[in-house]
């Protein structure tokens, strides 16, 4: 049991504390809107990590083998999702001065950050 807990800690530590886009997102959000604005996305981020770790522990990885139908569907769905996000970003207009001062994270951004444990 101790070896399993050590393995989990060794897996989660770099995930949580590495300098990546997720952590930079929280730093920028906190710097611009204050600490309180980082709480909802932070909860979603850590909930997604917890769910992913739980599913890995249940053996979901054995169901999603490369070449299986589940893997191919997830790969296609993920590709379309990233393309859709890129399209939405390309179509977004410029933000006028003073706009966007109210709500720190929009609905689409909440869904995005809650769906990926470690966005890269």
From TrEMBL:
It comes from the Bacteria. Keywords: Cell membrane, Membrane, Transmembrane, Transmembrane helix. It is a multi-pass membrane protein. It is found in: Cell membrane. The keyword Transmembrane helix applies. This is LysE family transporter. InterPro entries: LeuE-type. The chain crosses the membrane at residues 42-64. It holds the Pfam family LysE.
């Amino acid at each position: 049991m101790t070896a399993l807990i050590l393995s989990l800690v060794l897996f989660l530590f770099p995930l949580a504390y590495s300098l990546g886009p997720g952590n930079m997102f929280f730093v920028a959000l906190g710097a611009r809107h204050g600490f309180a604005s980082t709480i909802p996305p932070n909860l979603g981020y850590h909930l997604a990590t917890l769910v992913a770790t739980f599913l890995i522990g249940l053996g979901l990885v054995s169901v999603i083998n490369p070449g299986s139908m589940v893997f191919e569907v997830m790969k296609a769905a993920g590709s379309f999702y990233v393309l859709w996000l890129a399209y939405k970003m390309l179509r977004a207009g410029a933000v006028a001065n003073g706009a966007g001062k109210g709500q720190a994270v929009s609905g689409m951004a909440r869904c995005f950050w809650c769906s990926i444990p470690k966005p890269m």
